[in-house]
Amino acid sequence: MWSGRPGPTLPRPTTSRPPLTRPPLPLRVGRPVALLAIAAALALPGCAPETSRGWECLAPANPGGGWDRTCRSVGRVLEDLGLSPGTVRTTNLPGAGGGVAMARAVTRRAQDPSLLVAASSGTTLRLAQRQYGRLDTDDVRWIGAVGAEYGILAVSRDAPWPDLSALMREWAADPGSIVASGGSAVAGQDHMKLLLLARAAGMDPLQIRYVPFEGGGEAMTALLGGFVQVFSGEASEVEGQVEAGNLRILAVLAPERIAGDLAGVPTAREMGFDVEWVTWRGFFVPAAVPDSVGDRWVAVLDSLGRSEAWAQERVRNGMRPFLRTGEEFEAFVAAQVDDFRAMSRSLGLLPPEGG
Amino acid sequence: MPEALQLLGGGFAVALQPLNLALVLVGAVVGTSVGMLPGIGPINAIALLLPLAFAVDLPPESMLILMAGIYYGSQYGNSISTILLNVPGTASAVVTAIDGHALTRAGRAGPALAMSAVASFVGGTLSIFGLVLLAPVLSAWALRFGPAEYVALMVFAFVALSSLAGRSIPKALAATGFGLLLASVGLDPQSAVPRFAFGQLELLDGIDFLVATLGLFAVSEVLTLAEESPVGQSAAAAWGRARLTAAELTESGWTMVRSSVLGFAVGVLPGAGGTVASFLAYSTEQRISDDQGTFGSGDLRGVAAPEAANNAAANGAMIPLLTLGVPGSGTTAVLLGALLALNVTPGPLLIEQRPELFWGLAASMYIGNVALLVLNLPLVGLFVRVLALPRWILVPGVAALSYTSVYAVTNSGFDLVILTVLGVVGWAMRKGGFPLAPVILALVLGPLLERNLRRSLALSGGDWGVLASSPIAVGLWVAAAAALALPPLAARLRRSVAPRAGSGPPSP
Amino acid sequence: MSDARRWAVALGALGAGAGLAALGFRVAFVTDPLGPRAFPWLASALLLGAAVGLARHPGDDAVWPAPDARRRLAAVVVALLAWSFVLPLLGFVAATTLLLAALGRLFGSGWVRGLGAGLAVSGVLYLLFAWGLGLSLPAGPWG
After folding, report:
1. Which of A132, A142, B151, B203 lies at a 20 to 30 A Cα distance from B167?
2. Which range in B191-205, B359-373, C75-89 is most confidently predicted, on average pLDDT?
3. Most C CBs within 10 Å, among A14, A50, A51, to test the C interface
4. Domain boundaries, chain C
C-alpha cells in the first residue's frame, strides 16, 4: 500500500555536510572583526559532531515522558549494536499529544531519510479520534513496535469484588455506584480500556463514570485514598502498591497471561470479556521517504527487537516483549485505528459516518 | 527517634563514600549550572546523564544520589538567573523574581543572591529532617487529599495571594481573568473538547508555562528597557555587598523556618505541591511580617520565603515519589522512570526493603545542601559581575537566552511568536499599571482548581456539599475565610494604634 | 478617550469574545456536571467586570512612549520575530549573532562591537545548549 505512493526519486538530505572547500576569507576588506564574526558564525555549527548528521529520533513530548524514553533507550541500543551511523540524537517536539511531531514529519521533514518518530497506542488513538487535524494513518509510514505494556484494572485491597466478573456484574447492575480513575484524559487510553470492557460486558459504555487525573500516579492515589473504586492503568504504575498488599490487580488486558510477577493474574479474556489493551511503543517515519529507506528502517528495528541488548533495555523500561514490524505492524495499526474509531463513533466523539 | 537517627547514620556511611561524595558534588554543580538556563532545569540534565550513568553501571543509590544532586542544585540555579536577569523558568522562580529582581534594580543583587542561597539551604536542610522523621506519616496525609481538599487548598491559595493584586481591583481582576483564559487554551482533559485552539495543532497542548513566564517577564522587561533611554552602562549601577549582615539574617530567620515547614507540608501533596508552595509561603510571610509594606518592592524576606519553601517542597515531593510511586512534577517523573529502570520499585515497602537507598539519599541531600551553600556563597560575588556587562550586551543577551531556551525546549517557531506576543502584552500591562503576578498565578492555580473542582463534582454526582465534607477541607475553608477577613481587621487595628498606615505593596 | 476607557474597551472585547467562543465548546457526552465552559466563562466574567470597573473609575493615564521610543520598540519586536523565522534558514549561531548585533545597536553599540559580542554570546549559547545539554538547535545550511 505504501509503494503506490508517488514518492520523489531522490531524498534531499536536510542535514547536509559542510562544503569541503570554503570560500577564502576576504582578508583585505575592512572591518575584519565583523567579517570574522560572520565567518565564524557560519562555521561554528559545522563543528558540532552529533548535532549535524546522523539519525534523529523525534520524541513528540517533553523529556521524561514515555516517548522521550522510547527515543533515548532505542537510540542508545541502536548505537551500541552498531546499527546506526554514530549517535542517534533525540529531539523533543511536544504539542497536541504528538500531533505537532507528526505534522512535522508530514510537512517540513517529509523527505528526511534519517528521521524516526516515536509513537505508541496513544498516537493511534488520537489519530482515530481525529485529534491531529487532517492527519491520518496513511500520512506516515509505520515501521514497527519494539515493546509494550498491557492495561490492567486494579482495586483496593479490601474491595468487595473477588474477580473481574464480580466487579462487572455489579457495575452493570448499578453503573452509577462505581467510579473509576485513570491517568489519561477523557476518551484517552485509560478511559478507552474501561469503555471497551463495558461494551464487552454488555453495558452502555456511556454509563461508565470515569474521572481523569494527571497521570497514572495521581489516579492511583485517588484509589488508595478511597475516592474512586477502580483504577485503570498500566502494571508498572501499581507495582509497588501491589507488592505492599494495598492494591489488587483484577485483570490484565493482554492476549494471554503475562509471565513473571503477574502470572497469577487472569486475563480479561479468561474471565469472559474479550478486551485487550496493548500500550505498544514503536516508530513511524515520513511517508515520502523512498521504499529502500523505509525497508532499511524496518530491518533495523527488526534486528534491534531480536537483540539481547534490547531485551535488557526493554525490561529496564518496564516493557514486555512485543515485536511487530513492517507489513505486519502496518496491518496492526490499521486495525487498531479502525477499532478505536468505531468505539469513538459509538460514543459520539466522532460524527457517525465518513467523518 | 533514636532508631531513625541510627539509620541516618548508616545513610551517612553510604553518602560519604568517595564515589557518592563526588557524585553529589558533580550533581550539585551540574544542576546549578543547568538550572540557570530558564526552563531547562533538571529534567534535561537528568535525561542526558542517565544513559551515561547506566553505561558505567553505577549502583542504584549512587545513581539516585547523583540525580538528587542535580535536582536540588537546579533549584539554586534558576534563582540566580531570575534574581539577576528576571528570567523565571518555573512558577516558584516567578515568586522569587518579585522581590529578587526588585532588589537587583535597587543595587542589592549581592544580598539577594546570598539570601537565596541561605534560604535554600535552610529549606533543604529542615525538610530533610522532615523527610527522615515523618515520611510514613506524611504519605498517609498525602493520600487523604482528594479532589475536594485540593479545591479548598487552591481557593485558600487564591485568597491568600490577593496580596499580590496591587492597588487597583479591576486591574487585578483583569490580570486574573487573562491568566485563566491563557490556562484554558488547549484540549480540555475532562471532556476532550479543544478550547480556544482555533484549529491550531500547536495550541492543543495549551500554552507552555515557560513561554508565558518568559514572555510576560523577560521579554516585556527587554521591551521596557528598550523604551527607556538606550544608553547607559549597565542594568544596575551597583550590586551591593556579596554578603548578608547579621541583622538581615536574623530578620529573615523565622521567615525561613516558617516557609520551610509550609513548603514541606505542601510539597508532599502530589500534583499541587511544588508550584503552590512558594506562592503560599510568600503571601503568608507578607501577612505575618510585612509591617513596613516593603514586600514587592525589594524585601530580602520576599526572597527568603519562596526560596526556603521551594527547596523544602522539592524534598517533600520525594515522599510521594518514594513511598507511593507518585511523581509530583516533571522532574520527579524523570526520577521515577530512573528508579524503575534501576529495578527499584517505589512503594510503601521501599524504605524497609532498600534502607541503603532511602537513608543514603537523605544523607546525601544533607551533604549536597552544605556543598551548595559552600559553593554558592563565595560565587555570589562572581555572579553579580554579570551586571557589570554593558547594557548593549546584557539586554540583548537576556532576550537571546529567553528565546533560545524556549526554542530548545519546544523546537517550535510558533511558540516563539507566542513568546513575542506575550512580551508585548506584558509590556502593555506594565504600562497600564496591571499587575503581572496574578496572570502567572491564575495560569498555575487555575487549571488545578478547575480540574479538581470538576473531579469533585464528578465524584459526588453534582453535589457541591462534597467540597466541605472532610475535616481537612473544612480547615482550609476556614483558613481561606480568615485570610480574607483578617488583613482588613489587622489594618484597622494598626491604624487605630498608629496613624501611619502602610498601603498595599506596589505590584511587580 | 482616556487610557482606562481604552483598556475597558479592550478587556470588554476580550471577555465578550472569549465568552461567546466558549458557547461553542460542545461535549460529546457528559463526563462532569460542570463541563468545559464554566471556567472560560469565569475568566470572561472577570474580564468584563474589570472592564466595567475601569470604565467607571478611570485612574491616571500612563505615559505612552514618545515616537523615537516607539520606533525602538517596534524595531525590537521586528528583530525578535525575524529571528524566529530565519532561525531554521540561517542556523542558530548566524541568526543569533545578527539578532544580538541588531539589538545591541538599539541599546547603543556599533555594528562591529555588536557582531563581535553577538558571536561570542551566541557561540556560548550554542555550545551550552547543543553540546552541553544535547538539545537540538538548528545548525543551518552550513551544518
Report:
1. B151
2. C75-89
3. A51
4. 3-56, 67-132
